[in-house]
Amino acid sequence: MPDRFSVRIAVRSYEIDVNGHVNHAVYHRYGEHARTEHLTAAGCSLGRLTEHGMGIVLLETHVRFLRELSHGDLVDVDSRLTFGAGRTFEMAHTLRRGPDTVAAEITCRMGLLDSATRRLLPEPQKRLTELATAPERLGPG
C-alpha cells in the first residue's frame, strides 16, 4: 500500500550498549532515518523543503521497546503518516527483526516549520502534497 514505507537497517557494532543490545537512543535514529527516507521518496527531501522555506520539526516522540536488537540484525523500519486538522501530524514506525518479531514501536508528532517566521505552518498535508513529486507516498488524501 502506498501510505506504508519501509527501509532496512543493519545493526552496527557501535550501536550496541554494555548489555549487548542496541542502545535506546539509536532507536530514535532509526526512526529519524525512516522518516527522512519516507519523505524523500515522496519528493519532499530536506533540500526541497529548504528550497521552499520549510522544514520538518519533531515535537514529540515515544518509543516502546518490545524485543532486543543485536549486532548484525537486519531491521525493517516501516513508517506511516497520519494527518488530521491543525498544524501537526503524526508518523508511526514499527521496527521488525524478521517477519514475525516486532522489536519496537515509535510514534512522533511533527509539524511543518516556516523557516522565516519559525512558526508551524497550517495545513501540513496540503503543503507537503503540493510539494511532493510522489504524493501517494504521503498516504490517503
Tell me about this structure:
The protein has 141 residues and is α+β, with helices and mostly antiparallel strands. The protein has one domain: Roll (Thiol Ester Dehydrase, Chain A). The chain is built from 3 helices and 6 strands; from the N terminus they run βααβββββα. It has helices at residues 24-41, 46-51, 124-131; strands at 4-10, 54-65, 74-83, 88-97, 101-114, 119-120. Strands 1, 2, 3, 4, 5 and 6 form a 6-stranded antiparallel beta sheet that branches. β3 (74-83) and β4 form a beta hairpin. The protein is elongated. The chain starts with a strand and ends in a 10-residue tail after the last helix. The mean pLDDT is 95. It holds the Pfam family 4HBT_2. This is Acyl-CoA thioesterase.
The helix-and-strand class reads: alpha+beta
**Series of secondary-structure elements, N-terminal to C-terminal:** EHHEEEEEH
User: Total strand count, please?
Assistant: 6
Instruction: Give the fraction of residues assigned to helices.
Output: 10-25%
Topology:
Layout: E1 4-10, H1 24-41, H2 46-51, E2 54-65, E3 74-83, E4 88-97, E5 101-114, E6 119-120, H3 124-131
Antiparallel strand pairs: 1-3, 2-5, 3-4, 4-5, 5-6
Features:
141 residues; alpha+beta; Thiol Ester Dehydrase, Chain A; Acyl-CoA thioesterase
Summarize, please.
The chain is α+β, with helices and mostly antiparallel strands and 141 residues long. The protein has three helices and six strands.
